[in-house]
């Protein structure tokens, strides 16, 4: 099972990626985050194999 973290500031994009990934066998979305800081927290908490990260998020 591949464990995935989704990090994107747009909720609609996170939902779309989750829907696509949830439909695939062998992939589990373990967490979502709306910014980089939350992404780091979720990565530490859930230890995903893959992080799908938006490269153009506002903030620090």
Automatic annotation (TrEMBL):
Residue ranges of every copy of the Response regulatory domain listed in the record: 3-60
Any single biological process term in GO: phosphorelay signal transduction system
Keywords linked to the UniProt accession: DNA-binding, Phosphoprotein, Transcription, Transcription regulation
Gene3D superfamilies: 3.40.50.2300
An example Gene Ontology molecular-function term: DNA binding
Presence of keyword Hydrolase: no
InterPro entries found in the cross-reference section: CheY-like_superfamily, NreC/VraR/RcsB-like_REC, Sig_transdc_resp-reg_receiver, WalR-like
Keyword Transferase: no
Residues found modified as 4-aspartylphosphate: 54
Organism domain of life: Bacteria
PROSITE patterns: RESPONSE_REGULATORY
Listed Pfam families: Response_reg (PF00072)
Name of the molecule in the record: Predicted protein
Organism: Streptomyces pristinaespiralis (strain ATCC 25486 / DSM 40338 / CBS 914.69 / JCM 4507 / KCC S-0507 / NBRC 13074 / NRRL 2958 / 5647)
């Amino acid at each position: 099972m591949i464990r995935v973290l989704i990090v994107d500031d747009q909720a609609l994009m996170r939902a779309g990626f989750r829907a696509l990934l949830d439909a695939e066998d062998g992939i589990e979305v373990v967490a979502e985050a709306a910014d980089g800081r939350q992404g780091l927290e979720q990565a530490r908490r859930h230890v995903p194999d893959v992080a799908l990260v938006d490269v153009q998020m506002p903030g620090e």
